[in-house]
Amino acid sequence: MGMMKHLMVRSRRRSLWMMHFCLGGCNGCSIEIMAALTPMYDLERFGILNTGNPKHTDVLLVGGSVNHRNRRTLKNLIDQIPAPRLIVAVGTCALTGGIFNEAYNIIGGANRVVDVDVYVPGCPPKPEAVIDGILSGLDKFEQ
Amino acid sequence: MNLAKLWVPAAAVIAAPVFGGLIAGIDRKISARLQGRYGPPILQPFYDLYKLFGKDPLAVNRWQPFFAAMYLFGAAASVAWLALGGDLLVLFFLTTFTVGFLVLGASCVPSPFSRAGAGRELLQALVYEPVLILVFAAIFQQTGRWDAAGVWRQGGVLLAQTPLLYLCLFLVLVIKLRKSPFDFSASPHAHQELVRGVLTEYSGPFLAMVELGHWYETALLLMICALFWSSVPGSAILVAATVAGLIFVDNLFPRLTWRWMMARIWLPLPGLALLNLIWLMV
Amino acid sequence: MTVSVIPVGPQHPVFLEPFQLKLVVEDEVVSEALPRFGYVHRGLEALVVSKDFRQMTRVAERICGICSAIHGMTYCRAIEKLLGITPPPRAQMLRLVWSELHRMHSHLLWLGLFAEAMGFESLFMQIFRIRETVMDILEQTTGNRVIISVNVIGGVRRDLDAEGADGIRRALKKVAGDLERIRPVLVDDYSVRKRTEEKGILAKERAYELGAVGPVLRASGISQDIRRTGYGAYGELDFEPVVESGGDCQARCKVRYRELFQSMDLIRSGLDRLSDGEIQTKSKEKPEGEILVRSEQPRGEVVYYIRADGSKHLQRLRIRTPTFANMAALMDLLPGLDLADVPLVTLSLDPCIACTER
Q1: Where are chain C's structural domains?
Q2: How do residues B30-89 score in pLDDT, each as one tens digit?
Q3: Which residues of A10-20 are buried (b: 16+ CB within 10 A; e: fewer)?
Q4: How many domains in chain A?
Q5: Fewer CB within a 10 Å sphere, N or C end of chain C?
Q6: How do the domains of chain B map onto residue ranges?
Q7: Model pLDDT for residues C212-252, shown as the tens digit of each residue
Q8: How far apart are CA B230 and CA B153, in angstroms?
Q9: Cβ-based contacts of A126 with chain C (< 8 Å)
Q10: Optimal mutation site among B47, B198, B251, interface A, most CBs of chain A within 10 A
Q11: Which CATH superfamily is domain C42-357 in?
């Protein structure tokens, strides 16, 4: 039994299917997430695959700040992701609302709606930082 | 019934997914290298599969897990049947059956993506099923046997007589394994209009079952390919070349539409196969 | 005939940004398309009440990450006109260099996503590999990859030394070589042509009627480029707008592909004409009055309207972004399309939702 469990933890750490969802931001973070998939950074060498389908997702990358409309969409998406899942907030907007925090339609960072596991600061964070953020959240799968 | 004979299909049922998974891993690695990336480890598909089994089971309705299981069972049974040296015509019905369950599983959910994917999967079946039956007919024409064991024993190099037919079988493989340009019912890559097509609504263990079934189907089709050069080294070379061809074709083409497939492939493909068959007969 | 409604979005792998297209589909042919917006709306034009006009430069840059340098530049130009100052020639030329680099990064991103929308994974990867060279120059010369924040009111924040200029020239040479190598795939390849040719045709008259802007308009055969009005340093350089006549996805792809080379020419001649001197004109005044300023973004014409009353805060800021202008054209194109071509045609207009909704 111990070996099966060990293997499961190992598989979960090695095989992360990701999806990114951009909320009310400037889109800069999703550009950098796309860039992280491509030859220079290549997320797939860590087994991270871009799925774009919540039902296949292990790690959700949230970029941008939450507004009154996309709050429901984000909640909906999270409900469709089967456990165990990892939620990474990418970029200053997803952390706190960033520069738009005072705008009338903005509620705040992603943690107003969901429990965020890893915060990746930066405006926008470099692809290296995104990769580092995802990989540092892997310890969640140890339990 | 000789019980001792059963170890061959049993071994095949265990070995086929390992083989299919390895093919998938090699495919992903080589594709990545062709795209200028480092790529995942070869064992990546196995990590993916094992992880999927450990996810929370979220089924849309009661039928979905059942159809996923039936698809897996059908694919495994086809492999076992071929390994047993069974009748090729029965094998044909088994594969049709298998695809039917995949389509049913995809259409029993309300998601429009999944349903549209199911429709396209059926159209694909419409294209490759006639070719498969013609391939089996040609094998019979050449060897005089319907059972796979007999074909393997007296086949020789069937490829020399049936190059056009093998080309058709290769295209069937491209369609069946959902490679570009025919990856419109469920692409392994994201970024398409139907999200993941027939696989959209499966999640966790059920997706793992479908994935496992897909590996069985990969192994099954490559085993049929191997019949075209019935010797161990010969079939190994043939299968390796076929897989390499698949990977290159996958990376050389964008995704085309099912309308294009129906217009350009549907009739010419069986036509080409038939031409080869007629040539064998005269 | 089965009629179904397919909701593309708010989360969908084809679109980077949340926006919804409700497609009424009959046998995989779109009969009706309804867009729904509001997922990215932040209300940042109203931020003028809480941020002063200098801080607003940073907000303007974050309207959209893909065209951020040109948003910042347009905002600064508007404020400079209100203040009655002109940036020094060196600053003007540096603005040109960086905004053209930004245009290149945007067009390369678009080419990559366009390839991915066709399901051409390997082409997508190759284009993004080329794009990384441009991103490296941006990072080397400005310190950030996407939001480069070089514009300040009265000029630019950073200078470019001779070494930096040489670095840009060398990198452009590499990018030009790499782009030449993918040309046969984009232009001649049978399967790519099958997916792009005669898909989503926007006729010349129709494009004009619907008020399309930028590469979409130029791909329909209308020669319009706001850079030709000669704002900033563009007046010193000589260039012709890139025009194609097809009006289909292939034409829009060719326009953007050729504009990459045009941008490279502009950057090279801009670097050659870089004069010595200051990079910023300082002013202690507060803006007053009303102004309308236009620029050419990667996606087309952007219009800034500003009203100020001489205090620290602006009274009004209003932005008409290019994607907003192109949305009417998109809604005109979608009905009648095959479902498989919807992502391709939508992306061929290069929709930037963050810009549209602000």
Answers
A1: 42-357
A2: 988 888 888 889 998 999 898 888 888 888 888 889 999 999 999 999 998 888 888 888
A3: ebbbbbbbbbb
A4: 1
A5: N
A6: 3-281
A7: 888 888 888 888 888 888 887 888 888 888 888 888 888 99
A8: 7
A9: 145
A10: B47
A11: Cytochrome-c3 Hydrogenase, chain B (1.10.645.10)
